[in-house]
């Protein structure tokens, strides 16, 4: 992560590389698409035990907080007992939505990341965080990537959206629009909230894999909760080393798909002429949705 909370010129994940000066995983065995073998047999009993503890903590937090499809898919995945085998998950996932998991050593270049998504492949980091990183990790690890992201890939509309996002990323690279598209990813795929009849629910992976933000994002009166609006999000800076100051709320995954379908070329042109908004902005006419007050 960058040490500057206002920096969001790149995906926060990519910023990690320049800060640490080195990549954490072992890239020496990766192919041209940065894919490696998972080598599931190589995980130690201690690593499986750490996974179980991470899983248990999050699984306890999500009822009534994560969206239904996340909860149902997670249960069906049946990965509470240890680090999952990506090939087994791919068997089920491919049948459901035509997506596959690919193992990667860690962060991959933007172009590679987008190419995977555009081809319905989701890259999952092979290494698990260490004990001292139980509560907080600065770059995505196996637990974040798998627990946070994989369950939603079983939803057909979300799965289609993520593929379109990948294609949009390849396009944004050519149009110099990556900074804007990265904000969209951040405020949706990583930190998005969704409306439900029972109240607000979480679908963002960055929240769902976090011990503290699951509760905070729904119940705290501090952050803003603003209805989803694509261009507004693409103008908005984000924090990478604190809880979010604003969450954007979609009505349903159809809205996410439909509202991101237009050609972003004119959006990028407009955005380049504007100053970005601070992470805690609330615009005139914007509703700040109330927290869920759970009993
Ligand atoms: N519609 C966007 C474009 O034309 C692509 C995109 C789709 C981006 C879905 C994000 C999510 O660039
Ligand atoms: Fe992520």
Automatic annotation (TrEMBL):
PROSITE patterns named in the record: BH4_AAA_HYDROXYL_1 (PS00367), BH4_AAA_HYDROXYL_2 (PS51410)
Recorded catalytic activity of this chain's protein: (6R)-L-erythro-5,6,7,8-tetrahydrobiopterin + L-phenylalanine + O2 = (4aS,6R)-4a-hydroxy-L-erythro-5,6,7,8-tetrahydrobiopterin + L-tyrosine
Pfam family, one: Biopterin_H
Transmembrane segments: none
Keyword annotations: Iron, Metal-binding, Monooxygenase, Oxidoreductase, Phenylalanine catabolism
Gene3D superfamilies assigned to the protein according to its UniProt record, in alphabetical order: Aromatic amino acid hydroxylase
GO BP term, pick one: L-phenylalanine catabolic process
Annotated pathway: Amino-acid degradation; L-phenylalanine degradation; acetoacetate and fumarate from L-phenylalanine: step 1/6
Cited InterPro entries: ArAA_hydroxylase, ArAA_hydroxylase_Fe/CU_BS, ArAA_hydroxylase_sf, Aro-AA_hydroxylase_C_sf, Aromatic-AA_hydroxylase_C, Phe-4-hydroxylase_mono
Binding, Fe cation: 144, 149, 190
Cofactor requirements of the protein: Fe(2+)
Origin: domain of life: Bacteria
Domain Biopterin-dependent aromatic amino acid hydroxylase family profile stretches: 1-295
One GO MF term: phenylalanine 4-monooxygenase activity
EC number(s) stated in the UniProt entry for this protein: 1.14.16.1
Family: Belongs to the biopterin-dependent aromatic amino acid hydroxylase family.
Entry protein name: Phenylalanine-4-hydroxylase
Organism: Herbaspirillum seropedicae (strain SmR1)
